[in-house]
Amino acid sequence: xxxxxxxxxxxxxxxxxxxxxxxxxxxxxxxxxxxxxxxxxxxxxxxxxxxxxxxxxxxxxxxxxxxxxxxxxxxxxxxxxxxxxxxxxxx
Length: 91
Description:
By secondary structure, the chain is an all-beta fold. The protein has strands at residues 8-13, 35-43, 55-60, 65-69, 72-78, 82-90. It has a single domain (8-16, 32-90), classed as Roll (10 Kd Chaperonin, Protein Cpn10, Chain O), CATH 2.30.33.40.
């Protein structure tokens, strides 16, 4: 498992299916939004004041770094670039 250093947070994007009101499934366009929803996978223990593993967060896409580990792509962001935590919602 990845262990983030400093103020970094390891997250994984939550895939969302985009549908119109009539049920037509739209193709996902990553450039459509400036933010993305993600699940916190790991956080440095010294930074566990507000975020916990499993929390759903909204992240600024401009600061995301990617890392592949054991064939899985993870996203790494500085904790202060997490815009919001979604209360009461787990992945």
